[in-house]
Amino acid sequence: MRDRIPLRLGADGPCAGAEAAGEGDREYDQEGEQSGSGTRLPDPPRRDAIANLGPLVAPGGTLLVNARARDAGDQDDGPPWALTRAEIDAIAASGLRPVRIEDIREPESRRWRAEFVRPAAGG
Q1: Exposed/middle/buried for 31, CB within 10 Å: 0-12, 13-18, 19+?
Q2: To which H or E segment does residue 97 belong?
Q3: Going by fewer Cβ within 10 Å, which terminus of the chain is more open, N or C?
Q4: Where do the DSSP E strands lie in the chain?
Q5: Helix or strand or coil: residue 85?
């Protein structure tokens, strides 16, 4: 069983929570758990945080995303703010490869469930 470590993105800027914990820009070789923190950031800090997710995942590592979903242009009265497909797709631009992206629509809610991997070193 892998250890879980908290990854939190603070309101002071991208990756501020990790820096406050003394981790800075280090990669994580353990499974990380990020609990809704990214959706608590308004834009543009949220956009900046998404752009900086890739380096937090170790080479060969996996990032799982479970977030409220919305269509671009829909009103969102967050926090927490729902993410658009463009924001989910932007995670890949941070150096991660999408494995699966699901748009889950339920009677009372809608959410993204996505899996991204960071390519292994040299691959």
Answers
A1: middle
A2: strand 97-105
A3: N
A4: 4-6, 31-33, 62-68, 97-105, 110-117
A5: helix
Write down the mean pLDDT value for the chain. Answer: 76
Residue 87 in tokens: 């924001």
Residue 74: predicted pLDDT: 92
The full set of domain ranges for the chain reads 4-117
Token pair, residue 122, equals 């040299």
Mind listing the pLDDT tens digit for each residue in 54-112? 999 999 999 999 999 999 999 888 888 899 999 999 999 999 999 999 999 999 999 99
For residue 51, give both structure tokens.
């752009």
Whole-structure pTM value = 0.70
pLDDT 10s digits, 13-68: 334 333 333 444 454 444 444 444 556 777 788 899 999 999 999 999 999 999 99
Kindly state the tokens that stand for 111: 């959410």
Q: For residue 79, what are the contacts with CB-CB under 8 A and spacing of at least 6?
A: 39, 40, 41, 42
Asked if the 4-117 domain carries CATH number 3.30.2320.30, the reply is: no
